[in-house]
């Protein structure tokens, strides 16, 4: 056990999160023997003096060190025991690294071990972001009587969507695998990936076959990564990583947090809606963040402590409403009893060169080249996402772009925009990508919402875009861009009907959109 301390870093972290001065804590490593004999490594952050409660998490990332002190030390310095267990095959834990497939049983065994420790007082809360949110849903699949609260930040409950999205493979998994590949042996490379927005990994999506390029880049991860590429979205292989049933079993207070540009936002909203409809005590916070921003910051830390105080300690909460959200465009934070508020559908029809209030006739077409998919900056990426200037994409011949007239009044949208496209392609197995942006008076556009869908037949495709709470300002225009692909969000459809991760041959594919049956529907606040 390391000597208890409260150093300059701890002072900085507490001050940055607007917390009172904390106290010293120690960190000790332990072996946790699972039911099948596998030994996991776990770190116990123990506060000095009287403890306020116990927090537990399971992670594929570092449990000790500089970054871990930022994440877990802040809670220990404020008086909480924190137990962090490393999943199989990571940071000294035994077993083979096969992420997402063992956490249901393993996390329960970690909790059983924790109950035997002298410092454990009989109640705990789970906590964590991203993958650590996933492991919480794994634990919640078998509710524990002493599990009193959960704080899930930008955490999915269904990793099938993380891999295959709405039918085509997402770039998030190769980026995540690259981070895992270097985090223990070359941690500085992780920083490089963050600074460069994972550009070197994203470039692999332009190569063919992609699976061979990934194998070449990270052979040590291939034993688990290859199966994720081969099994497509409707394969029974994915059933163990779909924890949707956990949402129906939860009976403890759950705080959920996400960002409008977080890749897990739709799942976070589903979690909140389903829990609230069941009468579970739940709250939801969503800010103007991408995935990393949604995973932690002063606001999330403050709301986490408030949730712990209310549901683990039993003091009054400062939260005034279940929903706390940021309205982009308006740059306003609002507290609401529910979301979305009352809305009315506002349909904008695709027309030659514009968005129209009435249906148009005719059709447009564009040729998609999988070797040169258009780049759509920003959006819900694992690294490099968020809001970005996407003006340049409108200049490409392979992107169909239309815009509304200049708005004469503010238009506030709350909910999920829907694109209905009467679409066909020479190779029916293809991708359709739709992005809504806001164009200012100078002609500069910024992304607001987007959606993609893999289609296998010609006809009308209904595409749900990412949910938004956004105010389009008077004097600006609403722009819609439609393409057959979107680099670096997902690999290009090969135009042959093959798995895009395995395809060797790629051919260009002509897309046609018939305007009379194509529109965008915005849920406008009333």
Automatic annotation (TrEMBL):
InterPro entries: AB_hydrolase_fold (IPR029058), CocE/Ser_esterase (IPR005674), Galactose-bd-like_sf (IPR008979), Xaa-Pro-like_dom (IPR000383), Xaa-Pro_dipept_C (IPR013736). SMART domains: PepX_C (SM00939). GO terms for molecular function: dipeptidyl-peptidase activity. Residues 305-521 form the Xaa-Pro dipeptidyl-peptidase C-terminal domain. Keywords: Hydrolase. It holds the Pfam family PepX_C. This is Hydrolase. It comes from Microbacterium faecale. The lineage of its organism: Bacteria, Bacillati, Actinomycetota, Actinomycetes, Micrococcales.
